[in-house]
């Protein structure tokens, strides 16, 4: 955006009189020029904000660049129909990229984008490479968790193991634990094959002065005794963790270049659709969002306003919103074009799709008109 040409601004005529009065218009003109120059410079200065706007939309039941978005093998699969869209948010600005005052102001006036302080999302020393790596890790993790949630929903057994993914220097774990150690138990509580193992371990560390671990390292079990310490303000032993899953099916995701965890719920629905007879959507077009955990609990995401706008523009007839995003979704949704369902769990999401496919939404859990959080149906 450029400033108005100062030459197009009317300048008062010089009043008659002495020499000082004749010079006044020049000072006024110079002052006006300087004012507009300063405004122009201010508008073009980078500001510490990011803009969220609707990003590309992908059909999890379809193809992407000539390959299936989700390819399930190792078990009997069934034909699908319709669309279950996963939604993305495009971001302007953030670490390594400038947002200009003109862009931020334009977004505020347009009302279609969200302007947020960069520091609300990223520490000040975050680089663009850090963001890309985090998004990639979150996407990879969300895929595994989506498969786990789908297996839970289908009552299919699977195994999950908690591994040490890294050790913090100068922490209690340094020299005691190694990357790749499989954590079997903590203070006598079994963790192996427990979907909530990471939460259990974290909770135990937070509440204990001593932590006794049993880890599998190679072909042997090793006992490790640690005394938690304060690390970056938290009671911790100084490790990062990751889950390693063993599923009864193989699932390949064609999502290169897409990051973040918010597609988990739609991934899980697509997997269930492929592994069960009949088209879950009944040939209809639905969309939604939501992070998910292995137990099927749906969590809130960022950019909900942009996602419901993108799904409406693509012609989706049902939008599934995490409960905690209801307020902003209802505010942004054109409800004359799209029905908004509230989902707390994967079971809610599957029921919403199946009810909409059957043409009966009388029992559909909906985000209330005011966006408040409640448990009533049909509100």
From TrEMBL:
Q: Which UniProt keywords apply?
A: Membrane, Transmembrane, Transmembrane helix
A Pfam family annotated for this UniProt entry: Lon_C
Q: Does the keyword Transmembrane apply?
A: yes
The keyword Membrane is assigned to this record: yes
- The residue ranges of the PDZ domain are 162-219
Any one GO molecular-function label of the UniProt entry: ATP-dependent peptidase activity
Q: Which Gene3D superfamilies match?
A: 3.30.230.10
Organism of provenance: Brevibacterium marinum
Determine the domain of life of the protein's source: Bacteria
Know the name of this protein? Answer: PDZ domain-containing protein
Membrane-spanning ranges: 30-51
Q: Name one GO biological process term.
A: proteolysis
Annotated spans, Disordered: 1-27, 359-379
């Amino acid at each position: 955006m450029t400033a108005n040409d100062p030459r197009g601004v009317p300048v008062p005529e010089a009043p008659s009189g002495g020499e000082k009065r004749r010079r006044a218009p020049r000072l006024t003109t110079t002052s006006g020029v300087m004012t507009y120059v300063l405004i122009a410079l201010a508008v073009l200065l980078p500001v510490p904000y990011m803009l969220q706007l609707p990003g590309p939309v992908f059909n999890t039941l379809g193809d992407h660049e000539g390959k299936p978005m989700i390819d399930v093998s190792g078990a009997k699969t069934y034909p699908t129909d319709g669309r279950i869209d996963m939604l993305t948010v495009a971001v302007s600005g953030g670490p390594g990229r400038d947002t200009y005052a003109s862009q931020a102001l334009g977004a505020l006036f347009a009302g279609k984008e969200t302007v947020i302080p960069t520091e609300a999302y990223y520490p000040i020393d975050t680089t663009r490479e850090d963001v890309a790596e985090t998004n990639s890790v979150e996407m990879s993790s969300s895929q595994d968790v989506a498969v786990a949630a789908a297996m839970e929903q289908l009552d299919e057994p699977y195994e999950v193991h908690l591994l040490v993914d890294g050790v913090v220097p100068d922490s209690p774990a340094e020299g005691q634990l190694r990357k790749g150690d499989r954590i079997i138990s903590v203070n006598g509580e079994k963790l192996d094959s427990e979907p909530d193992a990471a939460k259990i371990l974290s909770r135990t560390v937070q509440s204990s002065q001593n932590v006794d671990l049993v880890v599998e390292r190679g072909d042997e079990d090793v006992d490790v005794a640690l005394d938690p310490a304060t690390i970056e303000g938290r009671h911790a032993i100084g490790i990062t963790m990751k889950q390693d899953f063993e599923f009864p099916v193989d699932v390949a995701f064609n999502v290169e270049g897409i990051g973040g965890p918010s597609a988990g719920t739609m991934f899980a629905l697509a997997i269930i659709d492929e592994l069960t007879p009949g088209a879950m959507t009944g040939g209809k077009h639905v969309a939604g969002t939501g992070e998910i955990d292995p137990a099927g609990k749906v969590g809130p995401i960022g950019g909900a306003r942009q996602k419901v706008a993108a799904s409406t523009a693509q012609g989706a007839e049902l939008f599934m919103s995490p409960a905690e995003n209801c307020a902003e979704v209802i505010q942004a949704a054109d409800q004359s074009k799209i029905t908004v369902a509230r989902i707390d769990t994967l079971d809610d999401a599957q029921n919403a799709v199946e009810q909409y496919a059957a043409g009966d939404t009388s029992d559909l859990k909906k985000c209330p008109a005011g966006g408040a959080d409640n448990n009533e149906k049909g509100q």
